[in-house]
Amino acid sequence: MPCLNVSTNVSLEGIDTSSILSEATKTVAKLIGKPEAYVMIVLKGSVPMSFGGTQDPAAYGELVSIGGLTPDVNKKLSAAIAAILETKLSVPKSRFFLKFYDTKGSNFGWNGGTF
Questions:
Q1: How far apart (Å, rounded) are the C-alpha atoms in residues 1 and 36?
Q2: At the N or C end, where does the chain have fewer CB atoms within 10 A?
């Protein structure tokens, strides 16, 4: 049920995206306390993006979850996802925003219904 959607202006061509997806899945599951089987990660590259007036490597993410998000968890998630993007895609931590949404199960569709 947690879904992390990340867009970046960095090209993903020639990048091992499977390692990014795997590491992000494990991180989100662990920090939010949800099974990996329910975590979705969406990674989009080569997205036209400007941050601070430049098109240097940057990223924007949104994480939606049914519960599990607290100020402390959000801080840990922000640090962990920023570290993954910096290590794997050379996006500086200072050029990454991550927005958190804690939603109700009735606002999250799955398996032809809602949670």
A1: 9
A2: C
User: How are beta strands 3-8 and 40-44 bridged, if at all?
Assistant: parallel
SS3 42: strand
Q: How far is CA 65 from CA 12, 18, 37, 39, 96, in A?
A: 26, 22, 14, 9, 20
Catalytic residue among 2, 35, 48, 92: 2
Distance between CA atoms of 90 and 103, rounded to whole angstroms? 31
> Is 57 part of the annotated catalytic residue set?
no
pLDDT in tens, 67-92: 999 999 999 999 999 999 999 999 99
Query: What are 93-115's pLDDT values in tens digits?
Result: 999 999 999 999 999 888 999 98
* 50-61 pLDDT tens trace: 999 999 999 999
With a CB cutoff of 8 Å and minimum separation 6, the contacts of 6 are 24, 41, 42, 43, 44, 59, 60, 61, 81, 85
